[in-house]
Design a protein that fits this description.
The structure is a single chain. The longest helix is centred in the middle third of the chain and has 34 residues, at 130-163. By secondary structure, this protein is an alpha/beta fold. Helix 6 (130-163) packs antiparallel against helix 9, helix 11 runs antiparallel to helix 13 (329-343) and helix 13 crosses helix 15 (371-394). Helices cover 53% and strands 12% of the residues. The strands form 3 sheets. It has a 5-stranded mixed beta sheet with strand order 3-2-1-4-5. Strands 6-7 form a two-stranded antiparallel sheet. A two-stranded antiparallel ribbon has the order 8-9.
Length: 395
């Protein structure tokens, strides 16, 4: 008999529910179930492994909380399954009639979810190999460093408005793949010399740079050096021959190194989106409105969903609308930024794909549609093109 352990992971503890069969009435069983509350320490880990589960099921709560428990379970030979947040929420409320959310209820729902869908792999979040997990971890770290830098640099510029106003609006950014901190920040932190900034500072009308601004500049330099180290590590990971066909396609689209890393971490391997025969899955189904046979491109739909650009229709009475639900928020935001910086400005359309998507954007803009809708529409078209190019290159 299989032993399934549902785990709801918190910051420093877990709530665990061990099942050997799915209860007939989970809502009633909730009140009789012997839940386990285990702390994130050696004793808690020993108690969890002493339960001797065959399967452990939990939500993918980032790289910080679930990583500890998942690593020890995997080392002990326990199979780990991950369930998406939205899927668990719908299952708990709609299938188990457990609308109230708490840690014990989630642990029970996770264990029941396995018994319900154990023979349907696509119901679970794909567990990625070690290199992809590392790439995703580094991508998230780069995003964190960027968020930390912004308020510091903004504070510096506000102070320079009265200390050294001639350079308060200087936008000194590190170029892609550059391994050197921009001269503006290095000079401000007194780490490098600059004849230009020395001359400007000598004749400034400002009141003089304070130690506070110098210290802020040093923080920015440290953060950018950490970014450089992470980008080097990503470059080493991308040297793996498995990624070569993906990188070739990304180069055609003009994706930068960060967007490349984000996409790789989300879509590799491409075979995970395909049908059982390893090819794009297409089914012919009867259309709901037309009643005629209609092709459904299921693999493409999964790919769009993973990147956060799959529109979902919501209809009620005479009202019909579509909106994007689910998928990676990080991918969706990054693709939107790519459209905004590389496709929308006409002077930035430097390749065939950029020109094709740019023409589509210009045409949609001319209709007077809202600009956010146009950008997402073009991003969706770009993802379709990306899928087709990856299929030709990788399969």
């Amino acid at each position: 008999m299989i032993r399934v352990l549902g785990l709801d992971v918190s910051k420093s503890s877990i709530s665990a529910c061990l099942l050997e069969t799915k209860p007939d009435v989970p809502r009633q069983f909730y009140y009789d179930c012997p839940f386990y509350r285990l702390s994130a320490n050696s004793e808690g880990l020993k108690q969890m492994l002493a339960l001797k589960p065959d399967i452990a099921v939990f939500e993918p709560t980032g790289t910080n909380y679930s990583r500890l428990w998942g690593t020890y379970l995997a080392r002990s030979g326990v199979e780990v399954r991950l369930v998406g947040h939205r899927q668990l929420r719908n299952y708990r409320s709609n299938h188990l009639d457990m609308a109230d959310k708490d840690d014990d209820g989630d642990a029970l729902a996770l264990a029941c979810y396995y018994f319900e869908y154990c023979n349907e792999p696509r119901r679970f979040v794909q567990i990625r190999d070690r290199e992809i997990v590392k790439i995703r971890e580094l991508v998230l770290r780069l995003g964190h460093l960027n968020r930390v830098q912004n308020p510091i640099s903004n504070r510096v510029r506000q102070d320079l408005a009265w200390q050294f106003p001639e350079v308060a609006l200087v936008r000194s950014r590190r170029q892609n793949q550059s391994e050197t901190v921009p001269i503006f920040w290095a000079w401000l932190a007194q780490e490098r010399k600059s004849a230009r900034y020395d001359a400007l500072y000598k004749n400034t009308v400002g009141l003089g740079i304070t130690d506070t601004v110098r210290n802020h500049a040093k923080r920015v330099c440290d953060l950018q050096r950490e970014e450089i180290a992470i980008e080097k590590e990503l470059g080493q990971l991308f040297s793996d021959a498995r990624f070569e066909p993906y990188l070739e396609v990304f180069h055609k689209f003009g994706f930068g190194p960060r967007l490349t890393a984000i996409l790789i971490s989300q879509i590799y391997p491409l075979s995970g989106f395909m049908g059982e025969d390893g090819k794009p899955e297409v089914k012919i189904l009867r259309g709901r409105n037309s009643g005629k046979p209609t092709k459904r491109y299921l693999s493409l739909r999964r790919f769009q969903k993973a990147l956060g650009v799959a529109p979902t229709q919501e209809s009620s009475g005479d009202k019909k609308k579509t909106k994007v639900v689910g998928g990676s928020d990080l991918c969706r935001k990054s693709l939107w930024q790519w459209i905004f910086t590389a496709i929308e400005p006409k002077q930035c359309r430097k390749n065939k794909i950029g020109q094709e998507l740019g023409a589509k954007m210009d045409k949609q803009k001319a209709t007077g549609r809202p600009i956010n809708w146009v950008r997402m529409h073009v991003a969706t078209a770009g993802v379709k093109m990306l899928f087709n190019e990856l299929v030709k290159s990788c399969l």
